[in-house]
Amino acid sequence: VRHRTDEKHTMNFTHTEDRRMLADSLDRYLAEQYSLDVRHKISASSQGYSPVQWAKFAELGIIGALFTEAQGGFGGDGFDLAVVFESLGRGLVVEPFLASAVLAGSALAHAGNDAQQALLASLIDGSHIATLAHDEADGHYALNRVSTRATRDGEHYVIDGTKAVVLLGDQAQSVIVSARSSGDVADEDGISLFVVPADAPGLSLRAYPNIDGSRAAEVTFTQVRVPASALLGQEGQGLATLEYAVGRGILALCAESLGAMEVTKKQTIDYLQTRQQFGNAIGSFQALQPRMADVLLEIEP
Fold first, then answer.
1. Do residues 248 and 80 make contact, with C-beta atoms less than 8 angstroms apart?
2. Which one of 31, 62, 92, 291 is most buried, counting C-beta atoms within 10 A?
């Protein structure tokens, strides 16, 4: 493939008016209703998120902004994810946006049949929590490395294996699990996805808090029997859906990190301008000015 070197391709990263209004609305709500004290109380709870806050985010349309109109939302583009998660990063929000709306929601939207995609409506209105169970202790962060097995048994599949760091695994009503229906542990083909009810017989979990205040679980599938209709997408072709969902998740996390860095930068500048030493604001000291210049350059695009 030949590429013309005399053409310049640029992407416009300026947000539309609708996206700016969405960010302003979310930032205002977080400033008024989601203080750091509120956040800490939520993260310290046994649920790890607030159903009341989650319902409010749904009412404000924040969850819907992560889905396309065809899926029942009103956004769904990468820019929409970036706007929402940058604001969530500024507020250090622990609600299940990543687990339910982005990872599980993207997988359902990408590969779900009509019945499975109907579940998107309850994800968007906040009445149903779903999560993606893919990572394994020996997965080495490779999406194609799956040792959990799914064996066909007539009109059913039987799933056996253990998944690690399943976000909000103890609160989700549905678990989208990756399992190998054929091939060796590192093959790209042979990975299938299944939508499994969290109360399915044989599914057990060990929940724990994460260092950032969110919650996760180790989820074990022991002879979990699901109907063939639980298959998400085509048998053995789940890797493309995983790449799509995880790719959107990475974008969301990058935007969230940027939002958190912006708050840190602002608070640091405020401190440098107000903290006094030897009768002067410490921000005037030459030893600190280059450090802040580096911070500004690292955060700004």
1. no
2. 62
- 132 CB neighbour count, 10 Å cutoff: 30
Q: How far is CA 105 from CA 14, 16, 153, in A?
A: 26, 24, 28
Q: What angle do CA 51, 57, 60 make, to 5 degrees?
A: 140
So what's the pLDDT on residue 13?
Answer: 58
Q: What is the mean pLDDT of residues 65-90?
A: 95
Cβ contacts of 143 within 8 Å, gap of 6 or more: 134, 239, 242, 243, 246
> What's the confidence (pLDDT) of residue 270?
74
Beta strands in the chain (DSSP E): 130-133, 149-153, 156-167, 174-180, 191-197, 203-209, 215-227, 231-232, 276-277, 280-281
Could you tell me the pTM of the whole model? 0.88
Helix (H) or strand (E) holding 258: helix 239-274
Residue 93, exposed/middle/buried by CB under 10 A (0-12, 13-18, 19+)?
A: buried
Residues 6+ apart with CB under 8 A from 100: 123, 128, 129, 130, 131, 168, 172
- The DSSP bridge pattern shows strands 280-281 and 276-277 to be antiparallel
Give phi and psi for 209, each to the nearest 5: -85, 145
The region, left, alpha or beta by phi > 0 then psi within -120 to 50, assigned to residue 194 is beta
Q: Provide the 3-class DSSP secondary structure of residue 45.
A: coil
3-state secondary structure of 93: coil
CB atoms within 10 A of CB 9: 6
The stretch 104-130 carries a mean pLDDT of 96
